[in-house]
Amino acid sequence: VSVISTILELVIALLPIPVIFTLPMDKTQRWSVAALLSLGVLTSGAGGVRCFFVWKAVVSSSDIVWWSEPHWISSEVENSVALVGSLTSNIIPVILTCPDLCMCTCT
Predict the structure, then answer these.
(1) How far apart are the C-alpha atoms of 13 and 18, rounded to whole Å?
(2) How is residue 98 annotated by DSSP?
(3) pLDDT recorded at residue 79
(4) How far is residue 38's CA from residue 15's CA, in Å, rounded to a whole number?
(5) What does the alpha-carbon distance between residue 63 and residue 55 come to, in Å, rounded to a whole number?
């Protein structure tokens, strides 16, 4: 079930990419939108790590308790990566319009 979930996350993350390149947009804008939507691939990568620890706990090892901690940590990391990836498109305009928030000297 864990592997199927991770594969479906990857498919859903990559699904809108071909559609973006058919839209009448500027080339840089098209690549920017594709990059933002491709952040879901990072979530799939974290899901792959979680799948490894599920496999290690359930199939490969006789001690489920020992491998439950890395599985729990990788599950939390996967959720955090998904949240950051989904909020990136909302926070970038705020950082660009208010450079004092990120404490950078960008102009």
Answers:
(1) 11
(2) -
(3) 86
(4) 10
(5) 12
